[in-house]
Please model this.
Amino acid sequence: MKRSKFIKTLGVATAGAIAAPYILPSGRLFAASGNQLADHVVFVLFAGGVRQQESVLQRYLADSQGLAWDGNIMYNMLNGGAPQNKIVYGVDQVNNQNVPIPTILNQSLQSQGTLFPEMRCSTSGHFAGLNELLQGTVATTQGLKQKPANPTIFEYVRKHMGIPASKTWFVGGGIGNSIPLLNYSEHPDYGSKYGANFFAPLVTFGDDGQEYLADAKVYHPQDQLSPMYQMKYFLDNSFENASNGLPNLGNTEEEKQDIKAFMKEMFTKTQNGTIAKPPVSDNSDLATVGYACEVLKWFKPTVTVVNLGNVDGCHADFTGYLKALHRADHAVGHLWNFIQTQIPEMAGNTVLMAAPECGRNLNHNPIKDYNDWYAFDHSDANSLRVFGMMAGPGIQSNLVVGGENNPVGEIHDCVLTVGEILGIKPEIQSANLVSASSMSLFDRI
Amino acid sequence: MKITRYKISPLERGAERSEGGVCTFSFPPAKYGGIKKIPFIKGVPAIGGWEILLLVFSFSLLTFSACKKTDDNTYDVNNVNLLPPGAGKTKQKSNEQYVSILYANLFQQALSANKLFDISQCIESIGDKDIAREVIISNFMNKPDVLIPADSVMQNNPEQFVTDTYNRFLVRNPTVAEKTWFINYINANPNVTPELIYFSFALSNEYMYY
Model:
């Protein structure tokens, strides 16, 4: 072959390889659509049942305790002035003063992005709400201790974008309320092989983890781990039974080693007190967000879901609820700031979304806290009222869609919204497994 | 049974047998006017008419007298799926079962209820259960009181070591193939220690079932 012909052929082949669609591990042909808004999505499940009155409506004590004090206690996320009196949500000082936590963001997320102040959720329960947020369905039959019946956003992303397991993460505040079950569904076309990695960092890296996980022996990858895996695979090949097989997230051996290295690093950082926690980190949501920041920095995932839940203390402690709400806002502010300042690969290339899984009742229950303030459960129509917001590249800034008398958006819209951000909305729609009424929030604008 | 053979003139037979085709013979003998023709195969001795009649009669007698209505029994072979040993283990261990059995296998003593609860929580807190189990096993391996045979025990009698390990972890004897594979692997890989073999068994899929 002549040199010129060889170079020409090589050039054509290279161009073809770059331009041609590529085959995903799922076996389907995927052509990059080119309408991806960002490479990363961080989705905060906020934060355990939030009343509209104390959050987006900024009523503070006015619509709950019959006191005339209102104001915004979520100033990292929402525009609006903070309450001027009866401050209980901040940090207690030695002189019995309670000081609000300083804002982290110079500009609120509302200003940086789009706010849907009046959305709806279909149920007033936590687990059903979380399932709705992650599956895009109205999960009326979803029971506790059950894996999601329909695919989660993690599975859609992994299957239709062809990304590895270590690029999807679910960081849960704890292991209660079936939270660990939410990283993949039991749907036959999706399931564990497209599931997300999961940590409940306060357990994994907490006291139990320090005692039973931190002291892991380090084996030589070639001399020790390799023969160990060879023997394991021999045993696995010899074993066949009638069951459906063990669930497997599909982390490769390299990914598993990477995750174990991350765990080792987290144990060291936890012992040294150098986890990337927010400036104030006096509750478990704030600690969880610290570990979520570490996950983001280490793995730079395509999709990360962070579940916060301290606000649910409102069942018995309204003052604690206000504190938790203020801290959840602090946590989100820190998360966004950390992405923009500490992770160059994700800065300017990440969309942050936040929405509660359910609201709270209009009327209080009979339980009073130490301030003589009533607590609130979640079971009535008011608890179906929530807000949602998103900020990042491709998101219109300083936009408010809908209002108190004009509800726009459902929380199950979040799955298609993430799909639109990552360029796989058509694939999710064609799977036909999200709620029929579900739309991308972009289509609601 | 006595067969009466009628004598046929050699001329009458031999003349045409050599040709094949139709053999002409006489019965009764030609001098009494009997002439028969029967087909024959070249090289097969010809038989006479009486013999044929007798054979037909005998065959008919046997056939009809032997006719008896019987049940139409058809015998066949059932399909049997041949499964490897361990196939009967179909129930997956819970996290608690896994941890308590693992602890008993490695330490030869029972795990306390508190530790069992705590370790199960740790497994629950990690999404990839393979990773969770690996980390827990490697933590156990770091404990001073873990009971693992010395390397010399394995090297001196690998066959017994492999059998004991199968019994300890998988609660069954190894097949000949399994035993052979492990013995060969131990002999061929000087880096393989009882600890690594225990690790692989504790991590195997079969160990996850009972």
In short: Strands of chain B lie at 21-25, 36-40. Chain B has two domains: 10-64, 95-208. DSSP finds nine helices and two strands in chain B.
